[in-house]
Amino acid sequence: MYPLIHILASLIFILALNFLASFTAAQLIIIFLSAILIDVDHWFIYVLKKKDFSTIRAYKWFIALDKIKKKPHFLCIFHTVEFFSLIALLSLKYQIFQFILIGMAFHLVLDIIDGIITRQERPSSILYAILKRK
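User: That's the sequence. What structure does it adopt?
Assistant: Structure tokens below.
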């Protein structure tokens, strides 16, 4: 899913949360940023593959990959069950992680919906990816 869609959907999401629940402005900002910044792992993949730190070229590279019929599968570390579980565990002790978890969950729901619509399989577990390679 393209960043602009994530940004717009997340903006609508936090506006809805603002009306439906009693979140502070800081909490809503954390939810919004975590729903967007989870995608920084895409940039990490680009940096590792291309040895280039340009966010613009990374974006263009992923757009070009999106047009390929048989797309390569990359394990996006922040999109994994293990990372999500870590944030969930941290949220039991530290309240800030509860808001990060909400933003991440919203982002992942959007990605799941996009995966269903585009019929695109996405790896979502570090352990599964390791076992599948053997």
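The longest helix spans residues 96-118.
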